[in-house]
Amino acid sequence: MKPLDPRLVRTAGAVRVHLAVTVVCGVAVTALVLAQAWLLARVISGAAEGEGIAELSWAITAVAAVALVRAALSYGSEAAALHSAARAKSQLRRRLIAHVTGVAVPGSPEPPPGEPDGGPVWLSGQTGPDGEGRSTPRAGELATLATRGLDALDDYFARYLPQLVLAVLVPLAVLAVVARADWISALVIALTIPLIPVFMALVGWHTQARTQRQWRLLNRLGGHFLDVVEGLPTLAVFRRAKAQAAIIRRITDEHRHATMGTLRVAFLSALVLELLATIAVALVAVEIGLRLMYGMVDYQTALLVLILAPEAYLPLREVGARFHASMEGVAAAEQVFAVLDERTDRQGGQPDRRPRPDSRALVRPCLDGCAAPRIRLERVSLTYPGRTVPALSQVSLVVRPGRRLLLTGPSGSGKSSLLALLLRFAEPTGGEILVERPSGTGGAPLSHIPADRWRELIAWVPQHPYLFDDTVMDNIRLGRPEASVAEVRRAAELAEAHDFVSTLPQGYGTRLGERGTRLSAGQRQRIALARAFLRDAPIVLLDEPTAHLDPDNAAAVRRAVARLLEGRTGIIVAHDTGWSELVDETAHINGGRIGALL
Question: Is there a domain that residue 463 lies in?
């Protein structure tokens, strides 16, 4: 764990103005401290020598004014520091979320060259040790990392980084003033100051492993707790809920012991630094006192040196304290960068650097309501990270505009993997997907088209649609947020969802609960179809739309799908061939390979 992590410093570069304001305010406060020390020495020495209030009134007034200005600058420094910390954390959080979801987050900075994206396929694979035995963060751990972990960076950005600069400037400024007043005292300070950073480094090396262990246990606790909450019904059925509670209690105790151990070392290190600074100040006080006794230095100079001596050591002690307070955030940041460094690009992780043609001419006509493009797969292969067996192998296929294709095959044959490629949730590890004009000319690789623009052409109905804990209206509006109430109702009617929505307590204003728990599987599927109708995209992808539905709900979904596919390009993934009457072509996938079209 380095005192200055280069990657965190680069992140702080985006808020350099606020950090500069913090440092400038700190330097100004230091100048005022020097002035205040001189003024206090003047007042005290003058009073000791018998000067009256009238002679010292200007100095007393100046001390009060300096104190007020110091308070104002300290407030400004703290405000600027907190603002810089908030912006730096937000930037890092947006970058993390954009990476793991594969979706651009508004306001997020451009990733560094060559940094890969994750996406839903990568995110779904974060379930523990990967294929090579490395530990990868699970969903709960990623949630902890993006929230509690990055929040711990407050001390690093707001206090540690500015204090690190001040720890260099302030002692030099104090030494310069003390040296001008008394070079012997300045020499004592110069010889004792290096002891503090030396002991800081020793303590930092000792606490590094403890802090990293503390953070690993917190991640483990968050991930395990989320797993238990999501699997609570299953645990209750098998009467294992109490056993999991005991495991959570054990992990919590381990985290508590690790936290207390880290705090114990931090408090002891603070004691060591305070003791060193106190001994150093005492040395200055002894030597200046002896020379004052023998008349080798005047009273005002002695007071000035005694007042300034603690200020020379204070910034270094503050750096030590801030470093320990920021270590948890730095440990979390290290894991964030480890996630950002994970490569999921094509060709074994090397980014595609071929020249990218302008895809606007290819995509814009489709956005204006024209026919969907032609999609051509040329010897496409896909192997997921951590696996050796390909999910797809040498798949060649042409999806023509306005045609409807049925993909059948057993579970695990690669049907959903093909949809993941078309949705840009994953990238081919071999071969290429080309997007061409309806005539079959002017094609461009799908990887050259921005994912957000490509997805504007697609309506997706997954096998298990995700419904948010929001109203029916807002869940359907996910397909097109700007849609009117009438358009939402019309989409629901086309999806055969309007009748059952009307029976809900608040109709379209009814909240559905987390994952839509208030609805049956068939009703959730029809809400997803309503989203697709509202989106009105030229390409429709459906993944097992009637799986696990009863005959009545399956029939309603089939009727809605038939309406949805009218005039659109459609790809239906299903186990059975019961969709044959709705499609123009059928292809069978087995073992990642596709057979001839029927």
Answer: no
Mind listing the pLDDT tens digit for each residue in 562-596?
888 888 888 888 876 567 788 888 888 888 787 76
Q: What is the CATH number of the domain that holds 332?
A: 1.20.1560.10
| C-alpha dihedral sign at 89, 92, 97, 100 | negative
Cα–Cα distance between 69 and 437 in angstroms, integer? 68
Strand (E) positions, 274-345? none
d(CA 102, CA 452): 10
Q: What value does the mean pLDDT take over residues 96-113?
A: 60
The predicted structure's pLDDT at residue 134: 37
* Whole-number Å distance between alpha carbons of 434 and 365: 17
Residue 526 inside a domain? The answer is no
Residue 87 within a domain: yes
Number of domains in the chain: 1
Which residues are registered as beta bridge partners of 202? none
Four-point Cα dihedral 261, 262, 267, 270, nearest 10: 140
DSSP string, 328-397: HHHHHHHHHHHHHH----HHHH----SPPPP-HHHHHHHHTT-PPPEEEEEEEEE--TT-SS-SEEEEEE
**Strand 430-436 relative to strand 444-445: parallel, antiparallel, unpaired?**
antiparallel
What pLDDT, on a 0 to 100 scale, did the predictor assign at position 124?
Answer: 56
Enter the pTM of the model: 0.61
Contact 303, 40 (CB under 8 A): yes
| Dist. CA 132–CA 451, nearest whole Å | 30
Q: Residue 356 — very low, low, confident or very high, per pLDDT cuts 50/70/90?
A: very low
HSE-up (13 A, CA, CB side) for residue 351: 14
Distances from the Cα of 481 to the Cα of 10, 55, 408, angstroms? 36, 74, 33
Task: Say which residues have a Cβ less than 8 Å from residue 582's Cβ, sequence separation at least 6.
Answer: 404, 406, 558, 561, 562, 565, 572
Scanning the structure block, which residue is given the tokens 């238990």? 228
Q: Which two tokens stand for residue 316?
A: 């270094």
Task: With cut-offs at 50, 70 and 90, classify the pLDDT of residue 371.
Answer: low
DSSP state of 416: H
Question: What does the alpha-carbon distance between residue 470 and residue 509 come to, in Å, rounded to a whole number?
Answer: 9
Q: What is the pLDDT of residues 405-463, one digit of tens each?
A: 888 888 888 888 888 888 888 888 888 888 887 766 667 888 888 887 888 888 888 88
Which structural domain, as residue segments, surrounds residue 318?
6-91+141-344
The verdict on residue 269 lying in a domain is yes
